[in-house]
């Protein structure tokens, strides 16, 4: 039989469930193990769902770029449609292309740069509540602050009132969605369980707030300078804009995606810096030289090279988006095999980012690996924390700038240490976050005499 019609190698599964049990027990270890055992194209099955795991950058580029129109979003994301509607994360085809074109100007680099001061100001507000020697859940702290930042940048809403309501409702929805994705048996959303009631109440609250703000903005001629104002003003070639429902879907999508990825990245960065004092010392050395006793600004970003490398390496080591999925809507060739229509392909950032073919000492946290233009020397999709191709995350520049500015703002004043005896477990759900948070003790730094002392 020619290789082009053969089935790729893979782990033998159970008769009915396939490889479901192994995957559920430890998704990250399972995907890494089958990649190292079976190679760049691995066939597996989760119940009735047939999946090919692609473990080489060239194959990932085939799916995300070269043959992207032969694929649609993974079925798991369709479960987000009751919450996100037809936003950029869940929509497909011509509708998605129109929405992406309309939304793109809101994420122009000059527009994104205008939010730098907001990111720093809200981080400073958080730090004003911190005291040296106390213990805080750093994942919660990062999540709370990035929620406030995205509320301000998206809606021009401050920390009181609507922003708090939407933030709390979004946290409820995030937890509910994560639970539903991880669960084997999914309770119908209309069944009045405690979890469903909380979810539906949170969704109604978000809809009320967002649709009211949209209505208010439509009546006003004032440009608030936020992302929502840009989306309302956006027009395509036919001079058509977004409907209120489309604006609602995009706003909720941006709110959800615009805080969790950055918060998780920062939480993992603090954990890694706590475990690698040499990297932490080098970070402080750069902040000392560049910033001194002042907070960072947008003009400082080109000078904060090591700070950026810490963020880049954190996204390699603990990729917030750890798995991308696509479904084939027509047959195609991948790695010498013929992928049938209806099959799912998985592309795991966790697996590829830790592949020794592309990263020396992949299990080592080493920000300096990025100092010599490693990204340009590596295969294009050896590192893809924000996806790639036409559907690359529209807010990648926003998220990267926010992470660098927040990291610099916090590290300038504090160093953080994991509480002795605390264990941090990974929770690979929609995003890769810490299961149960990350308890850390805060120690204050004071800038004096050209050195940092604690």
Short summary:
By secondary structure, the protein is an alpha+beta fold. It has helices spanning 20-25, 27-38, 57-66, 75-78, 81-84, 93-103, 109-113, 116-127, 138-155, 162-182, 194-219, 227-233, 244-275, 277-290, 305-317, 349-352, 374-377, 396-411, and strands at 41-46, 49-54, 71-73, 135-137, 324-328, 332-334, 337-339, 344-347, 414-418, 425-428, 432-435, 439-444, 446-448, 451-453.
What is the CATH topology classification name of the domain at 100-320 and 395-453? Cytochrome p450
What's the name of the CATH homologous superfamily of the domain at 100-320 and 395-453? Cytochrome P450
Q: Give the helix/strand class.
A: alpha+beta
Q: Would you state the CATH class of the domain at 100-320 and 395-453?
A: Mainly Alpha
Oligomer: single chain
State the helix count: 18
Q: Measured on Cα atoms, how large is the radius of gyration?
A: 22 Å
Report mean pLDDT, rounded to a whole number: 88
Helix content: 40-55%
Spatial order of strands in the largest sheet? 1-2-8-5-3
Number of strands: 14
Shape: globular
- Percentage of β-strand residues: 5-15%
CATH architecture of the domain at 100-320 and 395-453: Orthogonal Bundle
Summarize the main sheet: 5 strands, mixed
